[in-house]
Amino acid sequence: MTSTPMATALAVPILALALSGCASFSPDGGMDAVNRATQARTGAATTLLRTEHDRNALAEQLKPMLAQPLGADDAVRIALLNNRALQATYWELGIAEADLVQAGRLQNPAFGYQHKRGGGSTSIERSLAVNLANLLTAPLAVRMERGRFEQAQLRVTSEALKTAAETRRAYYEAVGAAQAVEYAKQVAGAADASAELAQRMRKAGNWSAFDQAREAAFYAEAMADVARASSAASAARERLTRLLGLAGTEGGYRLPERLPELPAAAPELADVEQAALRERLDVRAAAKEAEHTAASLGLTRATRFINVLELGALREREGGEPVQRGYEVTLEIPLFDWGTARTRRAEAVYMQAVNRVAETAVNARSEAREAYFAWRTAYDLARHYRDVVIPLRKQLSDETLLRYNGMLLSTFELLADAREQRVAVAAAIDALKEYWIADAGLEAALGGRPHGAAAAGDKPNEANKPNEANKPNEASQPNKPNKPDQTTGSTQHNAHGAHP
Amino acid sequence: MTASSNSRRTFLAGATTLLSAGMVSRAGAASLPEAPVHASAATAAPLVPPNGRPYNPVVTLNGWSLPWRMKDGVKEFHLVAEPVVREVAPGMTANLWGYNGQSPGPTIEVVEGDRVRIFVTNKLPEHTSIHWHGQILPNGMDGVSGVTQPSIQPGKTFVYEFVAKHAGTFMYHPHADEMVQMAMGMMGFWVTHPKDIRQHAVDRDFVFLLGAYDIEPGSYTPQVNTMLDFNLWTFNSRVFPAIDPMVVRQGDRVRIRAGNLTMTNHPIHLHGHTFQVTGTDGGWVRPSARWPEVTTDIAVGQMRAIEFVADNPGDWAFHCHKSHHTMNAMGHDVPTLIGVDHRGVAEKINNLVPGYMVMGDKGGSMGSMRMALPENTLPMMTGTGQFGEIEMGGMFTLVKVREGQARGDYRDPGHYRHPKGSVAYEWTGELPPAPQAPGMAPLAPAQGKPVDVKRGGGHEHH
């Protein structure tokens, strides 16, 4: 470019302008691209609510979704449509598009009118000045503004994805916390039975106040744990409510009673980094930014000599003399400022952008790896609880019951074991919750889940009815690995990590 | 029931369970007597002496007597100390250490004045020795390892040789790693019969050792470090209902000899008869020193021989009178639930622990409840009599006295058929009013309030 003669440099944008025509407002305000990208990455649509009508239509759309216990994908869907912060972000697109359209429009020509009278003579000078630089640079400006608009689209999409990921996390937090309350209550139930039996032991004269107080203390502490768990659960739920943008009666939505099951198989660390580089919007945005600064660098180079180029059409009449027509060109002589400083600056800005791209890529890959390992650990831990800890706890409970049967152990030990088993189940639930949160984290680190992959955790597992949770043999297998509906989940998850 | 060779014996159970004689290497076989092995837990028929001086053989309850060989006028026995698996009762086996396939080891029967040579081969993973409890013998044959002899290392064979000087009731057990080896079941009975077959003669002579084990429910090997809190109280490492009954003919003079190798004393009680203690591990008790008893306490490390005439037909309980000793594995830390109302709570517990059943609120009896137990664990009380559950286990069996029982027949004759009108029965007639002290309110059942004892009243201000 540097060697291109000025004329050619000018001809290119002019030609481009002639071909591109003026930018105009799109019917969707740029939301279509955002929607498409969001849908591809979250499986959920998003839309800009422009009018009260849109809002009412959305309310109608939400009604059936809120009538059911909410799945993780439902939550994401609702958040993408209903989160007000996101809606505010969507309007950024409007602003960016307006800038784009503005850039595409030629500056209005300036009409000058001079009327001079003095010494009996009247001089009227009319001039029509068009900012030629504007004319010449408009195509480039449009390109830049289009770039900015695209960046805005990326940013808005990225915000949408962030909200989706946050919603997913908040969703699992809320469901897991509610489930933890359920188990805390069951622990308290075991303690309650112990305390009550202890009271009766005391009443029958079989136990001392010491023994009774010990059992009562267990119960009292278990109740405190229930209160703590309930408080944590309501906080988690409210966080989710805020992300869903729900208020009023809509806030009474229901959540499933159990977390979705662990997928049957974990994908390997294959292409995680590649997927991150390919899919992540921050990487794309950085690349775009570099492209734009490159364009801007080109522009600066092209216009370094014509900074203040002005082209004016002249129409002058002095006195009664005939009208003189002509034009005037003011050309800055690059005597003192050869534009090198501006070129250097543009180069520096460009190189900055290039490095930002590299940085973003390095970060994206690292974050993808980190998220994957966190995910993998969470998966292994949840599976360890499901396949090792809980079955062992179950075995312990079975053996304890056998010992109770043989009058080798007392009811109190049986209840103490029930308490301990619940604690282990609660830990298993926590591990499962951490898994799903890590899953959302991995999804975010990879720039969204691959197209078409509905969340494995969309539907709460039907096999885990809440009333079955009361039975230790069921509770000890909160997540049966061999449910048919899990196989789909697992393939999705395989696709998740190994998406090409 | 005839005299049999060393390699072929008949057992009461009718099964030949002699497994093998090939316990010794070829090189040693030339000089060593064979070491017969017995695997069945059934009571073996008395071993009628095939050679040597004659004697009236004993019956080892759920055990057997060790055959011997005569060599140059010496009775040669071969004991092999080894790990064994003992059936404590059907449904439960224990990994024990014993002799010749069994724990306790086989009973050794000799006659007063016999020269006895005993080969002891050690097949345990550690050294051992054998002490011949109650025998008067040369100091170097006394079997206290480190004191009178070096211990017998694994794989080694030692020889003990002495003259059985005194008739009486004895036993053998290690004095090497003593606590472990006895806790693992290393013990055996020893009877030295009188030279004169008519002296101290009885019609039936039963012998067994009292042993205690602590085998955690669900496990197989005794806890060797337990000192007092045992959960299996055994006659010859068997618990009721797996202890054979002592079957006698009405009118028989019966001797029961027992030795105590547990860590506590056992008041052994016989129903339906009075008996006399006629012998200890110190020898025979002079008739003038005997006194009638229905219970005799056998202290730790003691042997007792009791004798009675079985003149009263029936199925008579014979047991240790420490009530925990007539129970099998039980939880010693289980709180008492008697009188505790379970209404409401039981449902709560059932929600948390399906399969939970209230037990013990009316007492310890589980009646006919048959619930799943940990593996290799016996119910506390089993055994069924003709009138229902026998709520005893452990050190408990029956002395079955029958009119028609043939001499030498030890087979279980089944439940006793009571003569008409000789069994306790339910009174269905009118009940007389309970006598009552004048001016007193009728007695109300106890309300079970906790005892509230005020202590040190009035001393607070001192």
TrEMBL record, chain A:
The keyword Signal applies. Residues 1-25 form the signal peptide. It comes from the Bacteria. Residues 449-500 are annotated as: Disordered. Keywords: Signal. The keyword Transmembrane helix does not apply. Residues 473-494 have a biased composition (Polar residues). This is TolC family protein.
TrEMBL record, chain B:
Residues 428-462 are annotated as: Disordered. Pfam families: Cu-oxidase_2 (PF07731), Cu-oxidase_3 (PF07732). Keywords: Copper, Metal-binding, Oxidoreductase, Signal. Residues 451-462 have a biased composition (Basic and acidic residues). Residues 89-195, 221-334 form the Plastocyanin-like domain. Residues 1-29 form the signal peptide. It is found in: Periplasm. PANTHER family: FI03373P-RELATED, MULTI-COPPER OXIDASE. This is Copper oxidase. It comes from Pseudoduganella albidiflava.
